[in-house]
Structure formats: structure tokens, C-alpha cells
């Protein structure tokens, strides 16, 4: 019998492959070890580290980030979902801090960490967030989670800040 992961980490790779190695290394170094990774998109590499927790989900060319995330959400097995875009880096306690934040606040549906380096957008970025499994999905034609997913989650329950910056773009 297989143990279900605590967190499903979604790596959308639509047209983006730069920094995948660093992102995977940062995930492998997490203090919370009970995760699964779903690498999804039109540019998901065929060769990934040999780890039973990692699954590749190919999509047709030109699939948008929303479509990739929705597909991964459908195939994920954990009660919590987090995101690790290519080029992103998790600090060692990122997943644990966010999972602990949600566990400490049962009314919360979304937890987020600080981001060391912002890239243009002032809203929450995928890499910062973890949320409980919900029926809500991103609009299939969007690359912006802010309007389609975060708004629905915020309207569905409390949002908690972990209290620390635990992720970065890694100079990507």
C-alpha cells in the first residue's frame, strides 16, 4: 500500500525549461519529505531524476499555464497543493512552513510565504503559495493565477502568511 503525499508540488513548464535543475535540487532538499512532484506542460523534459515521487505529464504544444495547472490538479493525490515554476527555488523549510501554517489555521484555504525577489507583478506568485485541495481551477486560457485561482481561494476562506521569505526566483 502506497502512502499518500502530504503535498503535491506542481511544476508548470509551458515553454520554460531554464532553471529546472536548481528548482528540482531545492525540492529534494526540503525538510518536509512527503511530497510528490507533477512536472506538466508542453516542454516537460523526458529525462527527470529517478524518484518515485516525480511524475511527468505531457501536454500538447501551446498549452497555457492554466491548462497545465488544472491537469496537474486533477492528477494530484495530496490534500495540499504548492507550485514550483522553472527557475524557482524553495529554501529548505518552505513546504514545511506553509503546511504548518495551514495546519495551525483550519479556516485557512491559502498560505503564502514571502518572496525574496519580485519580478514585476505585485500580486501573489505561484512559487509563494500552498493551498488546500478545492474544486476551483484556473481559467484554462490564462497564465495568470491571480484573478482566476487566488481570488476564488481568498473568497473561500482565510489566507495566512507564513511569516518568512522562503522562496526565490534564483536569478532566473
Could you describe the 3D structure shown?
By secondary structure, the chain is of the alpha/beta class. It has a single domain (7-168), classed as Spore Coat Polysaccharide Biosynthesis Protein SpsA, Chain A (Alpha-Beta Complex), CATH 3.90.550. It contains 4 helices and 8 strands; from the N terminus they run E-H-E-E-H-E-E-H-E-E-H-E. The protein has an 8-stranded mixed β-sheet. Helix 1 (20-28) links the parallel strand 1 (7-12) and strand 2 (35-41).
CATH fold topology: Spore Coat Polysaccharide Biosynthesis Protein SpsA, Chain A
CATH superfamily: Spore Coat Polysaccharide Biosynthesis Protein SpsA, Chain A
Percent helix: 25-40%
CATH class: Alpha Beta
Beta fraction: 25-35%
The secondary structure category is alpha/beta
Give the count of helical stretches. 4
Gross CATH architecture: Alpha-Beta Complex
Which sequence of strands runs across the widest sheet? 3-2-1-4-7-6-8-5
Question: How would you briefly describe this protein structure?
Answer:
The protein has helices at residues 20-28, 65-75, 94-104, 145-156; strands at 7-12, 35-41, 54-58, 80-83, 89-90, 108-115, 129-132, 158-168. It has an 8-stranded mixed β-sheet. The protein is α/β, with parallel strands linked by helices.
Compile the SSE list and pairings.
Layout (H helix, E strand, L loop, with lengths): L6 E6 L7 H9 L6 E7 L12 E5 L6 H11 L4 E4 L5 E2 L3 H11 L3 E8 L13 E4 L12 H12 L1 E11 L4
Parallel strand pairs: 1-2, 1-4, 2-3, 6-8
Antiparallel strand pairs: 4-7, 5-8, 6-7
Give short descriptive properties of this protein.
172 residues, alpha/beta, Spore Coat Polysaccharide Biosynthesis Protein SpsA, Chain A, eight-stranded mixed β-sheet
Amino acid at each position: 500500500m502506497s502512502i499518500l503525499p502530504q503535498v503535491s508540488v506542481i511544476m508548470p513548464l509551458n515553454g520554460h525549461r531554464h532553471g529546472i535543475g536548481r528548482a528540482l535540487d531545492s525540492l529534494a532538499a526540503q525538510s518536509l519529505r512527503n511530497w510528490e512532484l507533477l512536472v506538466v506542460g508542453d516542454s516537460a523534459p523526458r529525462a527527470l531524476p529517478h524518484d518515485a515521487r516525480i511524475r511527468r505529464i505531457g501536454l500538447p504544444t501551446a498549452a497555457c499555464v492554466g491548462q497545465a495547472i488544472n491537469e496537474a490538479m486533477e492528477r494530484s493525490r495530496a490534500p495540499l497543493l504548492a507550485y514550483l515554476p522553472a527557475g524557482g527555488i524553495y529554501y529548505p523549510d518552505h513546504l514545511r512552513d506553509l503546511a504548518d501554517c495551514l495546519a495551525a489555521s483550519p479556516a485557512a484555504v491559502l498560505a503564502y510565504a514571502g518572496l525574496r525577489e519580485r519580478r514585476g507583478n505585485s500580486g501573489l506568485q505561484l512559487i509563494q503559495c500552498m493551498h488546500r485541495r478545492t474544486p476551483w481551477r484556473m481559467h484554462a486560457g490564462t497564465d495568470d493565477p491571480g484573478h482566476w485561482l487566488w481570488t476564488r481561494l481568498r473568497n473561500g476562506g482565510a489566507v495566512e502568511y507564513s511569516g518568512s521569505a522562503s522562496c526565490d526566483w534564483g536569478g532566473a
